[in-house]
Amino acid sequence: MWPSPNYPTVVAQSYAGWMRTSDNSTDSAYGPLASIVVPAGTMGLNSKLVIITDWDCDAVSTARTKTLAVDFGGTNIQAPTTTTLITYKIMVEIQNLNSLTSQKTANSVTYVATANPRYATSIDTTTNQNIDFKCRWDANVSGATIALLGYSIIHYPGA
What we know:
The protein is mainly β. 0% of the residues lie in helices and 51% in strands. The protein has strands spanning 9-14, 18-21, 31-38, 48-57, 66-72, 75-78, 81-82, 86-96, 103-106, 118-121, 129-137, 145-156.
């Protein structure tokens, strides 16, 4: 039977691309790029969401710090920074811990030899929850851009 309840399923995926260009007035505040609703009840007691994002930073080479962020249920679960022209492919895993309201999130940019790469959250997955992609600079940067090229959100059912 396909799809089996034990197979991964795509919750959302888009490679349409979103871009934020520096406006030199609100650059240090987070600007939203995309928001996806994870429907209530998508996650089971021990299931997980895997979020993969593809980012490009800066059309202008600057030493300013750029932050690429992901929120789940209004809580920031990832916010790596860079000061260079860079392309990032980042994976985040949100796993329910035998509870519909308690998760551990693997949110490190690199998972090798990372101290405490799991972040605890208490998001109620029995209700709709947003996954928000956003970005910012630490200061105004004329002509700079940050682009979210696309994302995939995959649900892996638990036991």
